[in-house]
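Hey Z.,

So I finally got round to the magnesium ion thing we talked about over coffee. Here's the setup:
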Amino acid sequence: MLAVQNLSVNYRGIEALSAVTLTLQAGEWVGLIGPNGAGKSTLVKAILGLMPYQGKILLNGTSLKRQRRQVAYVPQRSQIDWDYPITAWNVVMMAQTRSLGWGRSPDIKTKKLVSAALDRVEMLSLKHRPIGQLSGGQQQRIFLARALAQQPNLFLLDEPFSGIDKKTEAMMLSIFADLSQQGKTLLVCSHEWGEALNRYHRLLLLNRRVLANDTPQAVMTMENIQQAYGENIQAALHHQNVIPFVC
Ligand code: ADP
Ligand code: MG
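And the result:
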């Protein structure tokens, strides 16, 4: 469904991604893991067309440029300006403005789509709340609702489990399972390292390059952790507060 071929991204001469090649199939739920600075967010942004790259990114065999609506994005929480004065409803509606055109008021069908998405994440009753006045978990649910309302085939989620409560995590996992059953594809960035990774159908271990691309059991080996996290392995795992789960 998605094919990334020989992708490289540079930030002012520093190579953040080098010759990354991967494919995602319909209905797959894939974890993109690796330490901080590995290039996970960069890869997602390149797929979204938010930064220049070398290489090819194809969706169902053709360039992504004309198919942006097929791809929804839930950004990393730390990259969002939470002081921006916008209500939960309008954040979700943002996914619709591109198809509506700026300045046009939404029709009933669009409003129903937005309502249904907010309902799915149990946030309809707080739709008038400014986004900055919601908890971390509630904010994450609003951004997931925005992605759902877009009705894409590919979901890119950047560290969706960071800074959220257990209830939100459980809700998100059940939504991801439903989406996957419906044949939607999910790429989820995470820097977790532990048993939680068993939930993914497949893991891509990234550190500038793709170091491993296989089932969770095959990827979670001590050799792979060491290759990805290097000498800082103990510090990295301690910092992330996880118990390493090694097969
Ligand atoms: P991850 O999401 O895995 O933590 P990122 O994709 O954010 O990693 O970053 C990958 C590398 O690119 C890091 O070394 C980071 O410092 C660098 N980088 C990310 N964004 C920028 C930017 N806007 N300008 C310069 N360097 C950047
Ligand atoms: Mg990141």
